[in-house]
Amino acid sequence: MTKKSALKKLRLGVLASHGGSNLQAIIDNCEAGRIAAEVCCVISNNKNATALERARRHHIPACHVCRSQFDSDEELDRAIVDILNQHKVDVVCLAGYMKIIGQQMTSRYRNRILNIHPALLPRFGGEGMYGRRVHEAVLKSGERESGPTIHLVDEIYDHGRILAQRKVPVLPTDTPETLAERVLKEEHRLYSETIDKIARGHINLDEYTGDTHE
Ligand code: GRF
User: Fold this and answer.
1) Which ligand 1 atom is at minimum distance from the Cα of 51?
2) pTM of this prediction?
3) Which residues make Cβ contacts (< 8 Å) with residue 128, sequence separation at least 6?
4) Cα gap 18→26, rounded to integer Å
5) Which of 52, 116, 135, 136 to mutate for ligand 1's pocket (most ligand atoms within 8 Å of CB)?
6) CATH number at residue 110
7) pLDDT number for residue 16
8) Is 64 tagged catalytic?
9) What is the torsional sign of CA 107, 112, 113, 117?
10) Domain coverage including residue 96
11) Number of domains, the chain
12) What is the mean pLDDT of each successive set of 10 residues along the chain, which is 214 residues long?
């Protein structure tokens, strides 16, 4: 048996609220064998999310789970954990998921939940920093570089250990839209590369590096 075929694929559960272009890049790279992983389920709080359609097109279980289906936040949290457990998910990838993650999930998947943020954390993160606002803040600051960050998720917004970052230039002519587009292209590459490194043991999610930012 070759070394490649002996490698166990990492089982991913992806949570996404909207378009899901990162999800699509991950699915495509998994299917092409470029990353040692497979997307086992996709969960969205938004029943109209294109992310759910993308999953269905690839015959991946697609679940719409939102607060109004449950009596409490705890029940919603439990339901999401149940779906992830049912699909034997090893690592959870947040890809434009606009809802806060519950405590049952952070404790069941401690150091196993990844998020992608469209700027270089620890700057330009925290509650309320998402989408266009992030890029506007970068442009306003006069920074000459931006780029995606992949980090572990804990109880605090955009706070967990940084696993990977990639820089792109900020151009004097940039608008939030042109900068977002440049960053998003790198997000698609960086998320898959990081997942593959985790699958191959090149990134150890349990390793304490002590550099979790404040
Ligand atoms: C990305 O910019 C990501 O950094 C942020 O949400 C956006 C999701 O985009 N967390 P898409 O739905 O994957 O296209």
Assistant:
1) 12
2) 0.94
3) none
4) 15
5) 116
6) 3.40.50.170
7) 98
8) no
9) positive
10) 10-120+148-166+185-202
11) 1
12) 69 97 98 98 98 98 98 97 98 96 96 98 94 98 98 91 98 98 98 98 84 51
